[in-house]
Amino acid sequence: MKKKPVLHSEAAYLLGIAILALGTALMEKADFGMSMVVAPAYLLHLRLVEALPFFSFGMAEYMLQGVILVLLALAMRRFRRVYLLSFGTAVLYGFTLDAMLALAAPLGADSFALRVLWYVLGMVVCSLGVALFFKTYISPEAYELFVKEIAGRTGQPIAKVKTIYDCVSCLLSVIMSFAFFGFGHFEGVKLGTVICALVNGAIIGAISAWLDRTFDLRDALALRSFFEA
Predict the structure, then answer these.
(1) What whole-number distance in Å separates Cα of residue 110 and Cα of residue 89?
(2) CA–CA gap between residue 17 and residue 129 (Å, rounded)
(3) pLDDT tens digits for 45-95?
(4) So what's the pLDDT on residue 22?
(5) Is residue 135 part of a domain?
(6) Residues 229 and 24: beta-carbon distance below 8 Å
(7) pLDDT for position 150
(8) I need a labelling partner for 63 at 20 to 30 A (CA). Which of 55, 112, 176, 185 fits?
(9) Mind listing the pLDDT tens digit for each residue in 127-167?
(10) Whole-structure pTM value
(11) What is the mean pLDDT of the chain?
């Protein structure tokens, strides 16, 4: 039997942050609508940047994730160290996202074909980033942690809980778009958002299974107990 290459949990964490940020930047470039998970933060950024030019997409990300972590603690009726560590991940991701947006800025998006390319690549890359987060013990972003915690509490498959979460987030994004920009104008939430909400959970499940088949997933550092306490 062929020995599988090792993928350490810590590497999966760092790769997850970078890959997820890259995928989000590509979807923003495509302008077919953001993924339903980040659409609320993107809408918050678009609304507040008009008055606060320094308020970046990345800043909106970790501010909104802070709110989600508070809601998670209330839903679980407890506060765990991992929630605070998850906010640290959100801040790191926010800075990485702003950097990826700057790197993606020169990419061409002046044709429908290019926009489709960036959208499809962005959606798949985002799914890979999320799947990597599920393979690490280090605290993921609030979005992934929320799904992971609720799935663990209810005993439901992560892919199913993820799909439900995505659909709720998509609905929230539509409401925010109407509230911020009026009923005649959609921002951040478009056809691509709906497509992503319907298929993202299944894509993440497939990529997660591929990671399990392809790599020997193990820890490099003895820190799992600290992050899971």
Answers:
(1) 34
(2) 7
(3) 988 988 899 999 999 999 999 999 998 888 888 888 888 998 999 999 999
(4) 95
(5) yes
(6) no
(7) 85
(8) 185
(9) 999 899 888 888 888 887 888 888 888 888 877 887 888 78
(10) 0.84
(11) 87
Q: What percent of the chain has pLDDT over 90?
A: 39
Q: In whole angstroms, what is the distance from residue 78 CA to residue 71 CA?
A: 11
Q: What single-letter amino acid sits at 3?
A: K
How many structural domains are present in the chain? 1
Q: Is residue 218 part of a domain?
A: yes
Range of the domain at 150: 6-228
d(CA 127, CA 123): 6
Residue 155, sorted as left (phi over 0), alpha (psi -120 to 50) or beta, turns out to be: left
Q: What's the pLDDT at 92?
A: 94
In a domain, 1, yes or no: no
Written as one letter, the residue type at 207 is: I
Number of neighbours of residue 43 by Cβ within 10 angstroms: 25
- Supply the DSSP string of the chain, one letter for each residue: -PPPPEEEHHHHHHHHHHHHHHHHHHHHHHTS---TTTHHHHHHHHHHTTT-TT--HHHHHHHHHHHHHHHHHHHHTS--HHHHHHHHHHHHHHHHHHHHHHHHTTS---SHHHHHHHHHHHHHHHHHHHHHHTT-SS---HHHHHHHHHHHHHT--HHHHHHHHHHHHHHHHHHHHHHHH-TT---S-SHHHHHHHHHHHHHHHHHHHHHHHH-EEE-SSS-HHHHH-
CA distance 170 to 182: 17
* Torsion angle, alpha carbons of 139, 144, 150, 155, to 10: -100
Name the nearest CA neighbour of 69 among 49, 93, 89. 89
Domain annotation covers residue 103: yes
